[in-house]
Structure formats: C-alpha cells, structure tokens
Specification:
The protein is α/β, with parallel strands linked by helices and 359 residues long. It folds into two domains: 79 residues; 231 residues, no CATH class. Helices cover 23% and strands 38% of the residues. Strands 5, 7, 10, 12, 13, 14, 15, 16, 17, 18, 19, 20, 21 and 23 form a 14-stranded mixed beta sheet that branches. A five-stranded antiparallel beta sheet has the order 1-2-3-4-24. A three-stranded parallel beta sheet has the order 11-6-22, with no helix packed on it. A hairpin with a 2-residue loop joins strand 2 and strand 3.
C-alpha cells in the first residue's frame, strides 16, 4: 500500500513539473510575442511621426535633412527624400528596432498647390460631336469680369475630339494667334478645332481637367475640397440644397440620369462641377443670371444665361445646345478663370498637398 502511495505522489509531482514547465514555455512565448508586437507598433508609429515631421518642415519652407539610424525612444529611424519634379518630393521614413522588421512609410508631396498650371484650350472644350443652335454665342476672345472685350489675348471658340456645327443663327468668335474674330454666323474655321488630339487622353473626369493625380488632383480631390466648405464651397446631391449665389468650388453630384432644371445663377463665380460616375448628369436649362469661372459638366441642354470663363463638357454622347436670342452667351475670360482657381491654390495652407501615402 505504501509503495502505491509513493508511486502516485511521484506521478503527481512529475505531472505537475511537466505542466509548470509547459506553462512557463507558453508564458515566455506569449511575452515574446507581446514584445515583438510592441516593437512593431513603436517602429510604425515613429516612422509615421518622422514622415509627418518632414511634411511639416516642408510646410514651413525648411530644407529637409536626410537622417540614418537615429535613436528615437526605443527605436531607430531614417529619412530619405527624392525630388520627383521641381514641385514634387517623395519622402521615405523608416522606423525599426535593431534585429526586427522595419516599418516603412512612403509619401509623395506637392510642395505647393499654388504652382497649379491650368489653361483652357478653348472657350468650350468637349470630347463629343457638338451642335449649337438658336442664337447661341460662343466667343473665344478674351473678356474681363464684366464681359468687356480684351484684344489679342483670347483663344479658340471650341475644341472637340469629334466635330462641331453651329446653325440657326448661332454665332462663333475667337482668337487665332493674335488675330481676334468677332462672333459671326459664318465664322472663320481657324477658331474651331475639330478632331483634337490629346496626347495623354481627354480629361474625362473633373479631377483630370486639372491634371489628375500627377498635378495633385487624384480622383475625388475636387469633391473633398467642396465638402470641406473652404471659402464657401459646397457639395450637394440635390441642387435644391444649394446656397446662392455660388462661390469658390461647387460640386453637384446628381444620380444617374439626373437633371437640374431652371437654374438661376444670380451673380455666381468659381468652379462649378456637375457630374456623376456614369457621366450623365445633365444641366437641363441654364435659365438666368451670370456665372463667372470654370464650368465642368457631363451634359447641357439649354443655355439662356451668360457664362464668362470656360466650359468643359465631359460626355462622349452627341450633344445639341440650344440658346435664346439676346440671352445665350459663353465668353472666354482669363480673369474669371484665374479668380476661380484661387480656391485650388491653397495659399496659407499649413500643409503641402499629400498626393499619396503608403505604409
């Protein structure tokens, strides 16, 4: 009996020892994983911090200094920079614990959106077969904010990838070289560009109109600016919710096939985008008022007001614009365009424009 008890006690001790040893091993492994996770988190956080500090330094106009293997709390960090263009820098920030994985943050930054380069190719730019009729005037000569003519500084009346036709008393004017041509029914052919060639493809979204991602306008950027409300900008999906007159950047995103009718602009200015992902948002009738600036729209049907600046038509479907006598005018205007662009300049912004961020 005593021998059996002795064997049982020894067995319990042995099993207990094995269990404790196994638990100790599990505990050591768990602690090791916790330490590794902590190191990875610290490395990532410090890499992000270094990238943000670099962007902040750029915002203050400071010259970035590359660093390597610099201690920062429990990690070490490095910063490398590469000039992609005169206005664009790539930042690579690394954080790591010696002997462990390295966390990497890559950011591409536009040093200043104020270097935005934008120029209307014509008073009206399109990628479709475009017909205008019923007393509509398109004048590519340059005009001031009140519609006053400025000599020898204008552009074409129309540029389209397809063809253009003006009929039923519509008048077309513009500038060829430095020669201005008043709007006439029988206009000179040099002020209209048909079968236009765009080496990088027609800018078929609002953001591409301003150069797309390469210029700091990845898809959705204009919508973000409008949603921010900067300088009175607005974003709506229902035009009934707009505050008038429009100013700065206004983005109207209609549902597929949606129409916006009987528009009275009052005295509006800025950039107006009317668009959806199907490129079929339609301004049914521009009825009253005056808009000064840049109009980017999928489709237009009737124009019975005055536009000073420029229009970009995004649809590929054949379009016919109708006017009304003594009311329907599209005047190219550099001053109106330049004023509209101020909302995109971001002068005084605390941060340069971060084009991409990758971890």
């Amino acid at each position: 009996m005593g021998k059996i008890v002795t064997i049982l006690v020894a067995g319990v001790i042995l099993i207990g020892g094995i269990t404790l040893l196994a638990m100790n091993r599990v505990s050591v492994a768990f602690i090791g994983r916790c330490v590794d996770q902590h190191d990875r988190t610290c490395a990532r956080s410090n890499a992000i911090s270094v990238a943000n500090m670099a962007i902040g330094a750029l915002a203050r106009g400071e010259e970035l200094q590359e660093v390597s293997n610099v201690p920062l709390f429990s990690t070490r960090v490095s910063l490398d920079t590469f000039a992609l263009t005169e206005n664009r820098i790539k930042i690579i920030a690394r954080g790591y614990v010696p002997g462990k994985d390295t966390a990497v943050v890559e950011a591409i930054v536009n040093l200043s959106a104020s270097s935005l380069s934008f120029d209307m190719r014509a008073a009206v730019v399109a990628q479709c077969k475009l017909t205008v009729e019923k007393d509509l005037i398109i004048d590519g000569r340059n005009h001031d904010m009140e519609g006053g003519f400025i000599a020898e500084t204008g552009t074409l009346a129309v540029s389209t990838i397809e063809t253009f036709e003006a009929k039923k008393k519509s008048k077309i004017g513009g500038t060829c070289g430095e020669e201005d041509h008043e709007p006439e029914e029988h206009y000179t052919s040099c002020i209209v560009e048909e079968e236009a060639v765009w080496p990088n493809g027609f800018p078929d979204t609002p953001d591409k109109v301003f150069g797309g991602e390469e210029a700091g306008f990845p898809e959705g950027r204009l919508k973000e600016i409008a949603q921010s409300g900067v300088d009175g900008s607005q974003y709506v999906t229902d035009p009934a919710n707009l505050t008038w007159p429009l100013q700065a950047l206004t983005y109207v995103e209609l549902p597929s096939g949606g129409k916006w009718n009987n528009i009275d602009f009052r005295e509006s200015w800025g950039i107006l985008v009317v668009h959806n992902s199907q490129t079929n948002a339609q301004m049914e009738k521009l009825k009253e008022g005056r808009f000064r600036g840049i109009l980017i729209v999928d489709k237009i049907k009737t124009i019975e007001n005055k536009i000073i600046g420029g229009v970009t038509l995004l649809t590929q479907a054949s379009s016919t614009w109708k006017g009304k006598k003594n009311k329907s005018e599209i005047y190219f205007g550099r001053e109106a365009i330049e004023r509209a662009l101020t909302v995109l300049q971001q002068e005084g912004s605390e941060n340069p424009l971060v084009v991409s961020w990758y971890e």
